[in-house]
Design a protein that fits this description.
The complex is a heterodimer of chains A (428) and B (328). Chain A is an all-alpha fold and 428 residues long. Chain A has 17 helices and four strands. In chain A, strands 1-4 form a two-stranded antiparallel ribbon. In chain A, helix 3 packs antiparallel against helix 4. Chain B is mostly helical and 328 residues long.
Amino acid sequence: MKKLISRLEENKKAQIILFFIYVISTSGSLMLAQKSVVAFLLLLFSLLLLYFMSLSIKLKWLIAGVILIVLLPFSASQGPAYESYMEVSTLVGIYIAMALGLNIVVGLAGLLDLGFVAFFAVGAYTYGIFATKQAANFMPFGTYPLSGESFWFFIIAGCLIAALFGVLLGIPVLRVKGDYLAIVTLGFGEIIRIVFNNLDKPINITNGAMGLSSVTPPSIFGINLVYPSQFYYVVLVILAAVIFIVRRFEYSKVGRSWKAVRENEIAAQAMGIHLVRTKLLAFAIGASFSGMMGVVFAAKQTFVDPTSFTLLESITILVMVILGGMGSVPGVILGAAVVTILNLQVLTELTDWFNQLSLNGVISIPDALSPAKMQRFIFGGLLILFALYRPQGLLPAKQSTFDLKELKEEADEEIQPVIPTAEKNVNL
Amino acid sequence: MFAHIIQTLPQVLIDGLTLGAVYAIIALGYTMVYGILELINFAHGEIFMSGAFIGTAILIGLTGVGWIAAFPAVVTLILVLLITSVATGFLGMGIERVAYRPLRKSSKLITLITAIGMSFLLQDFVRFITELKNGNYIVNTPSLFSGKVSVSASSLSSSFDDATFKVTFIVVLIVALCLMIGLEIFVNRTKWGMAMRAVAQDPDTASLMSINVNKVISLTFFIGSALGGATGVLFALHYGTIDPYIGFILGLKAFTAAVLGGIGNIRGAMFGGLMLGILEMFAAANLSTITGNVLGAEYKDVFAFAILILVLIFKPEGLFGKAVTEKV
């Protein structure tokens, strides 16, 4: 078996052929067996296989693009469960973007943020307030709700406002380190939630616990986007941009200074890294992704209320980052996908299945133990298990390490040709 | 405006003292663990919550066998407090052994994450046990001490309103006082207490002085958690209703109290707890009057967190703590 795998690793053609067989068979089965969640999950799993294949990066992106843009929507669209699959895929995309944002703060810069969902809330409310009649209560000019075209502007606005909030949180927190930071961010998350929950007086801005309903759907070229299958493409585009930006940042000067700050603040400062600027940038960029996705979330749900932004959400995003691997972009993408699908598909399917079983009288699972209610238990357990046994996560971040011996040898090799010529000169 | 504030002052003080006593004892658990391991034990709020549930379960059980009617309430109270604190003490010790000790050498971020995981795990564990037994995870604690006392503060000065308090207020205050004095004596007068202070100062040197550091850390967790559990019982008795999610926010505020008093400092935690309790009740009663109905009582949590953030910014070492410089 091991031999087979190692031989497969060397043989590119066999890899490609097997991969195509896999993709075609899974998408085929998704087309034929519409209600099969398994086929849907297996098709998504192909992207993970793709990650491990030894192909050039451009080719991988191309194949992944084809699968996500054409194959997945097409093969899911052949039956009644189409919209629910697209809903799940859209949410997976939203959570991936958020997890990538948190990954910058926690994974790269090493600042534990437990109130991350606050930025998501800021984004969601930014669009929610202006795309409903709510804004008319306090804005002296303009007519509200704004038209659907403004959505595209609000994606940028949500991004900027969330970044602003990130800096606002960052400034007081800069003097605070490590575990204090975790507590303060947690408190900040709660403050934001409580404020949104109570901001219906003296001026009704957020409509309090009632939430904002019937948010204007975004529109482009006169088409209103209302179905998850349409949002899917919006999310895909934003996600592609987010991944591109994250990758660029990771290997830039800023990214390296984040990592330096994470490893040792004092040493980083001694090397000339501006601590304040570096940390604030991490907060701002992390928050901005979250804010952007908040806008999309508000538009997609057409409903915003404070219960979507609880501490549990923040911890869920943290679980995604820890599960995938702190600081590792592919890992975090995997983690976010696994947790979201677990949350939305697997747990609810299991619950339905158990309900069926107890209806048929096979076994009876009490309502208290139904898997959909066990989120906290599962996520808590995952956090502990991963912290104890695999702190680097499922797909660990690749750190380029330098072996001192090898470096010396290389240096020697470079010097060596010089020495003989020098000797020759002496001989001459 | 001032007339209103002064009128409500007696009631605010009574409610604030009760809440403050609860905060103070929970803050002790945070501050002891932080003093020794420099770790925020997020699960401490959940240990408090478990204590409330264990105590309630015992009380319900005792009511079932007719114990409550047969014995005086004080005996029952002491019994319940003892059983609960031993149980939660072992729970805290177990958590330390399983989740924190293997990670003592790894980065602080990872330990913190385990602590959060632990807290979530405990919340849900208690939730489904209660829901299995009870059908609902919100539980009413049988009352042990009934009756209300009214203080005629208006006879002192006409600007005060009369205040009332439940008898449990006195119970909470007395038990809290006993626990705090007991802890002070334990930490300052006994050999184990001395070992604890030594480990808090420098674990490596302490281990050279033939102190078993692991044992001392276990003991610290035991005592902190036992105090937390006992407070849980007091909370359940006084407020009457508990659910599995009371621990998190309350724990967070108790931590705020610990920071306010200077983390690692036991007397500071007691003072910080009482102060935060009174401040919070004061905010709940008067925020809307002071701000002219802009901010209501809902903002009392925001007020507590704002205190935390302000303290951390302007005086991170707390009111009674010593400033430490980070060693390179």
